[in-house]
């Protein structure tokens, strides 16, 4: 497993300073260069991980929780399809999805955010990276994935859920599946989405990528139709395993305007 030295992690005082308002031009330039370098680190680390499915969800979910067990089953199922399972690399739902993939012999990766209450990456990762900035981490969690599975979670999970929908809505990325797992947990959220549609804040067509389910089997079927077949993925021999790979290696997953 790939592990980095915690002593090398940057401190968060810089983020507080950056968000406090304008600073000297030199400090802003220096910060921009650090952002650039962290993007390069992320791209180099994740370049050969293969097509992913990203699983979002709470870091606070205990292993005894039914949603932890469902996330583990989902990790196993999508790994067996040939996808790399990507998460935020932390505990809870993220750990469960990574564990399912790892124990099934699939490939499991994490893109972890550095927070003041530092948490160790979960033990079910073949590869992971620490990212000091949320916006870089969010780009990496989207860039390599052909679907997004949203399990029960809090503010961070909702942020990732709506950003995924927004990127599809605004055609910044292709129309990849956004799967909301847990009908009862997300009942009020779905009702509010329907309210937005009723008030014409969003249109029916802008929800075409959203799928809501309680079934792991339905997740697999939906991914097979709207990730694998729709985007022309096929299996090739890669890293001593069969992985899904792009049929056309020159094709950019992101829409070029």
TrEMBL record:
- Keyword Hydrolase in record: yes
What Gene3D superfamilies does its record include? 3.40.50.450
InterPro entries noted in UniProt:
LOG (IPR005269), LOG_fam (IPR031100), LOG_family_nucleotidases (IPR052341)
The protein's UniProt keywords, in alphabetical order, are:
Cytokinin biosynthesis, Hydrolase
Please tell me whether the keyword Hydrolase is annotated for this protein: yes
What's the superkingdom here?
Bacteria
- Listed EC numbers: 3.2.2.n1
Which Pfam families does the annotation name?
Lysine_decarbox
**Catalytic reaction list:** AMP + H2O = D-ribose 5-phosphate + adenine
The family annotation for this protein states: Belongs to the LOG family.
UniProt-listed NCBIfam families:
Rossman fold protein, TIGR00730 family
Official protein name in the record? Cytokinin riboside 5'-monophosphate phosphoribohydrolase
Give the originating organism.
Aquimarina celericrescens
């Amino acid at each position: 497993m790939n592990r980095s030295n915690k002593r090398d992690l940057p401190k968060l005082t810089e983020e507080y300073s950056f968000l406090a308002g304008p600073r000297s031009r030199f400090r802003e330039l220096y910060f921009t260069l650090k952002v650039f370098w962290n993007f390069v680190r992320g791209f180099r680390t994740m370049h050969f991980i293969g097509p992913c499915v990203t699983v979002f969800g709470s870091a606070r979910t205990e292993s005894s929780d039914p949603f932890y067990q469902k996330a583990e089953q989902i990790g196993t199922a999508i790994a067996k399809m040939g996808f790399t399972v990507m998460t935020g690399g932390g505990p809870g739902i993220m750990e469960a999805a990574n564990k399912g993939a790892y124990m099934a012999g699939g490939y499991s990766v994490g893109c972890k955010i550095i927070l003041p209450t530092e948490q160790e990456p979960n033990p079910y990762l073949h590869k992971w990276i620490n990212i000091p900035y949320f916006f870089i981490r969010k780009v990496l969690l989207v860039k390599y994935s052909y679907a997004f599975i949203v399990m029960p979670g809090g503010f961070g999970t909702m942020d990732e859920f709506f950003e995924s929908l927004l990127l599809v809505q605004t055609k910044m990325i292709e129309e990849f599946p956004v799967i909301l797992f847990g009908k009862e947990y997300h009942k009020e959220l779905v009702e509010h989405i329907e309210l937005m549609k009723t008030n014409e804040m969003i249109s029916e067509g802008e929800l075409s990528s959203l799928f809501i389910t309680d079934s792991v089997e339905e997740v697999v079927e939906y991914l097979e139709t709207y990730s694998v077949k729709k985007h022309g993925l096929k299996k090739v021999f890669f890293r001593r395993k069969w992985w899904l790979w792009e049929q056309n290696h020159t094709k950019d997953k992101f829409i070029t305007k």
